[in-house]
Design goal:
The complex is a heterodimer of chains A (306) and B (500). By secondary structure, chain A is an alpha/beta fold. Chain A has one domain: Aldolase class I (TIM Barrel), CATH 3.20.20.70. In chain A, 45% of the residues lie in helices and 11% in strands. Chain A has eleven helices and nine strands. Chain A starts with a strand and ends in a 12-residue tail after the last helix. By secondary structure, chain B is α/β, with parallel strands linked by helices. In chain B, strand 5 (55-60) and strand 6 (65-71) form a beta hairpin. Chain B starts with 11 loop residues before the first strand and ends with a strand. The chains are: A alpha/beta (306), B alpha/beta (500). Chains A and B meet through strand 1, helix 1, helix 2, helix 9 and helix 10 of A and strand 1 and helix 10 of B.
Chain lengths: 306, 500
Amino acid sequence: MQRIKSLLIIPDFSLSPRIDQVGVEERTSRFTKRSIKKETKLNGLKLVLNMIDLTTLEGKDTNGKVNQLCYKAQHLHDAYPGLPTVAAICVYPSMVKTAKKALGNSGINVASVATAFPSGQASRDVKIRDTKYAVANGADEVDMVISRGKFLAGEYNFVFDEIATIKEACGDARLKVILETGELGTMDKVRRASDIAMHAGADFIKTSTGKISPAATMPVTLVMLEAIRDFYYKTGKMIGMKPAGGISKSKLALHYLVMVKETLGEAWLSNEWFRFGASSLANDVLMQIVKEKTGVYQAANYFSVD
Amino acid sequence: MPKSISKGKSNIIKLKFDTSWKYAPAPESKNAATIKSQYDLFINGEWIKPSGNKYFDTINPANEEKLSEVAEANAADVDKAVTVARKAYEKVWKKMPAKERAKYIFRIARIIQEKARELAIIESLDGGKPIRESRDFDVPTAANHFFYYAGWADKLEYAFPNRKTEPLGVAGQIIPWNFPLLMAAWKIAPAIATGNTVVLKPAETTSLTALKLAEIIQESDLPPGVVNIITGAGATGAAIVNHPDINKIAFTGSTDVGKIIQRAIAGTNKKATLELGGKAANIIFEDAPIDQAVEGVINGIYFNQGHVCCAGSRLYVQESVAKVIIRKLKDRIESLIVGDPLDKNTDIGAINSRQQLDTIHKYIRIGKLEGSEMYESSCALPGKGFWCRPTLFTNVAQSNRIAQEEIFGPVLAILTFRTDDEVIEKANNSPYGLSAGVWTDKGSKIFNMTKRMRAGVIWANTFNKFDPSSPFGGYKESGYGREGGLHGLMPYLNLNALSP
């Protein structure tokens, strides 16, 4: 137990804790050995469903596609009553207005990627306007990307300032900061980028855009969860976590849930503090939930593709 | 919108690991294992009634229920076993071409793999260790030891070039209760691979997997008398040690018993390897990968309920990171699951026996009396059986008994240090020297530390890693001789000069 210290102390990010990749992988393999069955499985699956940011981020996205996705978000599988909805719909800024209208007062948030997603290779001015445009159109959450080039060049102040600026542009919208861990190269860098993002004002830290492979992995997510834990103990401020990309199966999602439970505990086991960025995970979770009820797997054709 | 959970100076920050999303029980089925109601002695490939006709109960430490009863071998039975082992050595095993010997050992290894699930269940039932460990560590590593030494059997001339190798004869082997099947494998595999025959006695609280191994050996058609497994307590062990026709004693257990054995064989021609107690120093420097080091400390001390001779029971933390590491350790032990050893989610099972539980409680009392601060997990313990919460002591001094003596339970003593020299001096300041651990991001520091520390095994940025190809053994009162690897062959061989 510990008292809260000031948020204002900005550390030297080059001194962020070192990470031993082998140790991280060993720890994550322990999470996958937890046996998740029956009630635990069903409750876990419902929790996962409720944590999903249902995502479409394609050049070919249209209003029609986004409308359909928004309907799906509210009616995941009406044949099985009592299911939760997803947490949010995640779209490009140009689709925010459509999504906001389609979701109405369903309680489902609209998240918009911004800041020249996915590369982030644009001027700061463009990034600020991109963000403000999304927020003005009704985005509840903004998913920004960091400037990985600047980060890898060691210009941590630049990265810090940029995140702080975008946070300001967000106003009341929650800011998720995408580290694009697949481009960072080492666990040490993942930890360092997490520390920068949290100190600069991120409400969430997020692994990936989904456009780069590898996207989210359990070891990377664990390093970020541990950074969140250290930040929480240091400042008393909770930061959310969003692994994105590469999580398409229920079993894997449940392993992530185990990891959150055993690393951060109860407070983070809700969609306010933990999200899955995924497009195809929802249907696999639905298939598993129906299987838990009926005892048999249904064909994929019974679950709507949107 | 974001809720800032804690604002203002009065708020206390604490993570809550007892979450509303709970793991349902996931017990492994007992039906996959067959345990007979009574076990006799395995002598000369057959099951023989003990000549004293005495049996003793073996219980499940998780619920104190009787599992079976096993025979108590007296001196006459030991003599019978040694006699058939001698006969098998002279008439069959010594003469058999090494590649033929290897075939039997490979076969034993394969049958262990085939029966892995059953062996894991029995190991957890009889010894109290979590099924996750017996399934993922004990049983596969036991099989690997047989595979490894089977491979050496016909290659001894390459292991020891320019030497003529010769087996010793009959080996008397006495093993402890913390890794019953694995220790049997550690002992039997190198002995028979090098052409010796064996009389092995498992610990009295955990005889069942050794007896299962006897069934496996029977199934493998190993020539009768090559491996004899007899059960009993200290008196049986003493009869083995004192038997005049034994050529070699291999013992794993307490330093006290090791000393008795050493006295008993003084002046005889018996060779010995002793693998005894430990009080391993696990050292975390300020530049270490902290979260991984914390995980390593957890594995180092709470693996197998701390019933590990090489357990990292003395933790040395550099003062600048002590506070944060202690906080992380306290959080981590809250997420350890203590309970039914057969549940796949259990991290810490039952303490092996009431006697051992009493010893652990004694040391926890001593630690408190000595003025150290005790912290234990808040988990609930089952009503029946022998249980101990994962426990740690802070503010421990080098002069505290809990920092000096082997507790052999889930109890960690945390000490702090300032400089490299200081921690090396403190780490070496122990009658034991079995293992140690170093956690640092700096490679050169690892080499400096490992060079100057007096311990048989030193792990860097990891702990409790075992492999059949890696030698294991101690300095000082942790014993002598090495098991595992090429080194593990030597204690079972005479290495003679090639005759001109």
